[in-house]
Amino acid sequence: MKRENGYMDLELFKKLIDEVSEVQDSVGLTHFTEPLLFKDLPRYISYGKEKGLVFGMPTNAVALTEKWAHRLIDCHLDEIIVSFDGATKETYETLRKGADFEKTIKNVERMMEIKAQRGVSHPKVTIQFVRPKQNEHELDAWRELWRSRSDELQVIDGHNFAVAELTNMMLENSAKTLGHCDWPRNRNPTGPNRLRPVPKEAIRAIP
């Protein structure tokens, strides 16, 4: 699949946000890319926040520097979802080519420290584990690794963007409460409506 590389023009983004804010209360900032590669991202988020939208942002956290941590706090990003698919260096770096196991953990830990130092609760830091067969044996160890280093844990089955089916999704937070993760449909990462119904045919029982 070939895609043209580039960044969305701010004026186009504003136009889309103006339209979206009339019918939707949340926006996910990703689609086949890494948001932290875009240095002007906080300006875009700030505009959306002025319109009352909730913003969630998936990231691999490889580029989550201290500077980025402060910038994401300053623009009032609501949630970052860190993709971290293993509990060992070998598994993680096999699945996340070019990433460094120890460095990524330190990046997330520093994000949590900066939030605490500044006395803020945003952005919520969610660690996500996508569960293909290569790493499912590390799930328990992954929970232990991240339970005290994040605000929330999220586990989903491996998925295929070529099909519309959502299967066997679950959400686990630090308080050990469980619910279905409705990503990528209508996901509001914060607030009382954060968990929304998923069609019954798209869900299997949580194992």
Task: Please specify the SSE layout and strand pairing.
Blueprint: H1 10-20, E1 26-28, H2 41-50, E2 54-59, H3 66-74, E3 79-83, H4 89-95, H5 101-118, E4 124-131, H6 139-146, E5 152-157, E6 170-173, E7 178-179
Parallel strand pairs: 1-2, 2-3, 3-4, 4-5
Antiparallel strand pairs: 5-6, 6-7
Helix pairs in contact: 1-2, 3-5
| CATH C-level category of the domain at 24-153 | Alpha Beta
Task: Give me the count of strands.
Answer: 7
Shape: globular
Percent of sequence in beta strands: 15-25%
**C-alpha end-to-end distance:** 34 Å
Order of SSEs: HEHEHEHHEHEEE
- Major sheet, described briefly? 7 strands, mixed
Low-confidence stretches: 161-207
CATH architecture of the domain at 24-153: Alpha-Beta Barrel
CATH homologous superfamily assignment of the domain at 24-153 = Aldolase class I
Helix content: 25-40%
Question: What is the CATH topology classification name of the domain at 24-153?
Answer: TIM Barrel
What's the Cα radius of gyration? 17 Å
- Helix/strand-derived class? alpha/beta
Tally of individual helices: 6
